[in-house]
Amino acid sequence: MAPPVPVTSAAVSEAKAHASDPLEELELRLLLEAVFHFYGFDFREYAPGSLRRRVRNLVREEGLPSISALQDRILHDPKALPRLIQGLSVSVTSMYRDPGFFRAFRQQVVPLLRTYPMVRIWHAGCSTGEEVYSMAALLEEEGFYDRCRIYATDMNEDALRKAAGGCFPLVAMREHTARYLAAGGRRSFSEYYSVRDRQAAFHRRLRRNVVFAQHNLVTDRSFNEFNAILCRNTLIYFSRPLQERVHHLLYESLARLGFLGLGSKETIQFTPFERSYQALDPVHKIYRKVG
Ligand SMILES: C[S@@+](CC[C@H](N)C(=O)[O-])C[C@H]1O[C@@H](n2cnc3c(N)ncnc32)[C@H](O)[C@@H]1O
Question: Where are the alpha helices (DSSP H) in the chain?
Answer without folding.
Answer: 9-18, 22-39, 48-61, 67-76, 81-89, 99-104, 110-113, 130-141, 157-165, 173-182, 240-253
